[in-house]
């Protein structure tokens, strides 16, 4: 299996095997658009569930119970405050967390006594705390400010590094794509948004950008001097870069997702609701979507933007016209794919073999 995967990766790099990812970009755009629209709908219905850190309220924790029945906790709260709709979650196998709106001191004491009686525990096994909404607002504002600063810096650095604003724009589009879908999945699951969740959202931004930059770096290398030759188009060389980095993207994603998946399983099914569960879900979904966008969205988007340049459009037309001329057909009456296949070449947007790969200039000694 390992040998087969390694051979598959080598075939992708040398050109024996290839996938027309960039050439089929309309398919990936459609998939991404559907995912984004569904995620946007989920943000309104059912919507995100802010944790107590953001909405404020009273919280009770009952530990070491023999019967972790959530109905007992609900009845204990409504017996003191009939209008309350408490949020009860299990913490591990012998604990519960009960969250309510803000209760006064007398109600807090009454709820504690009711929980002690309901679960037949000692008073020191029931802890209570109050969380004000101002802290959550402060965290939210700082998260928004961090996101804005991050996007501005990324846009500027990538434009300078690649000397191409189109790559920076495509990377930002992919980043928002990852963030919206991740938040949408979180809304669909129905877990509360906690500070740990926000940290997870911000963390996936860096991962998404990192994976995209690696692919773009290969695109820049492959497309250097593309206008100085007439064998391949910009789109084909960009697709070559995607295929060459495909195995690396898969390996990186799997290595990253395995520990995050383990943390998510432990946090969700072993320890119950908590910081591990909240941050692990955001990371797991974000990394998965980030791997998809770096391959199927970022580079195709960059190619779409670059193909608006007159010089690249003219170069592509010359390449296709030369292929048609070699077949003795009219290039205006035959599609790009048909020209490439009829000429006996690898289909456009795919590898063209080792000879077509860009060569590095020898370094000075």
Key terms:
365 residues, alpha+beta, four-stranded antiparallel β-sheet, two-stranded parallel ribbon, 67% helix, elongated
Tell me what the structure shows.
About 5% of the residues have low confidence. It is built from 13 helices and 6 strands. It is 67% helix and 7% strand. By secondary structure, the protein is an alpha+beta fold.
Can I get a quick summary?
The chain is an alpha+beta fold and 365 residues long. The chain contains 13 helices and six strands. It has helices at 2-14, 25-47, 52-55, 70-80, 105-119, 133-162, 165-189, 195-223, 234-244, 246-270, 275-306, 310-327, 336-342, and strands at residues 49-50, 57-63, 87-90, 95-100, 126-131, 192-193.
Instruction: Quote the beta fraction.
Output: 5-15%
Question: Which class best fits the helix and strand makeup?
Answer: alpha+beta
**Strand arrangement, largest sheet?**
3-4-2-5
Output the radius of gyration. 27 Å
Number-wise, the strands total 6
**Share of helix among residues?**
55-70%
What's the rounded overall pLDDT mean? 82
Termini gap: 42 Å
Order of helices and strands: HHEHEHEEHEHHEHHHHHH
Major sheet details: 4 strands, antiparallel
Unreliable segments (pLDDT under 50, ≥5 consecutive)?
Answer: 341-358
Form type: elongated
The number of helical segments is: 13
Task: Describe the secondary structure blueprint for this structure.
Layout: H1 2-14, H2 25-47, E1 49-50, H3 52-55, E2 57-63, H4 70-80, E3 87-90, E4 95-100, H5 105-119, E5 126-131, H6 133-162, H7 165-189, E6 192-193, H8 195-223, H9 234-244, H10 246-270, H11 275-306, H12 310-327, H13 336-342
Parallel strand pairs: 1-6
Antiparallel strand pairs: 2-4, 2-5, 3-4
Helix pairs in contact: 2-7, 2-11, 4-5, 6-7, 6-8, 7-8, 7-11, 8-9, 8-11, 9-11, 10-11, 12-13
């Amino acid at each position: 299996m390992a040998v087969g995967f390694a051979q598959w990766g080598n075939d992708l790099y040398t050109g024996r095997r290839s996938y027309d990812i960039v050439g089929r970009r309309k398919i990936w755009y459609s998939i991404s658009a559907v995912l984004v629209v569904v995620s946007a709908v989920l943000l309104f219905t059912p919507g995100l569930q802010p944790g107590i850190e953001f909405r404020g309220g009273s919280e009770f924790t009952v530990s070491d119970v023999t019967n972790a029945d959530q109905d007992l906790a609900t009845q204990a709260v409504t017996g003191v405050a009939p209008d309350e709709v408490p949020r009860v979650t299990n913490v591990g196998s012998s604990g519960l967390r009960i969250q309510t709106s803000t209760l006064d001191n007398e109600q807090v004491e009454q709820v504690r006594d009711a929980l002690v009686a309901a679960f037949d525990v000692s008073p020191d096994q029931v802890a209570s705390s109050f969380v004000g909404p101002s802290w959550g607002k402060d965290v939210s504002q700082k998260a928004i400010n961090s996101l804005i600063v991050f996007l501005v810096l990324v846009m500027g650095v990538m434009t300078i590094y690649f000397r191409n604003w189109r790559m920076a724009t495509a990377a930002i589009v992919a980043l928002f794509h990852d963030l919206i879908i991740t938040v949408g999945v979180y809304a669909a699951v129905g877990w509360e948004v906690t500070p740990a969740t926000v940290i997870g959202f911000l963390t996936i931004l860096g991962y998404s950008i990192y994976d995209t930059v690696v692919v773009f770096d290969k695109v820049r290398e492959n497309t250097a001097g593309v206008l100085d030759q007439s064998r391949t188009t910009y789109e084909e060389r960009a697709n070559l870069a995607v295929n060459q980095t495909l195995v690396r993207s898969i390996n990186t994603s799997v290595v990253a997702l395995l520990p995050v998946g383990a943390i998510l399983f432990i946090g969700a099914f072993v320890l119950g609701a908590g910081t591990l569960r909240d941050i692990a879900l955001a990371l797991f979904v974000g990394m998965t979507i980030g791997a998809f966008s770096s391959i199927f969205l970022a580079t195709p988007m960059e190619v779409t933007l670059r193909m608006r340049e007159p010089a690249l459009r003219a170069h592509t037309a010359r390449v296709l016209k030369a292929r048609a001329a070699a077949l003795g057909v009219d290039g205006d009456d035959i599609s790009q794919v048909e020209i490439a296949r009829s000429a006996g070449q690898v289909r456009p947007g795919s590898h063209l073999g080792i000879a077509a790969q860009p060569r590095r200039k020898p370094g000075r000694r």
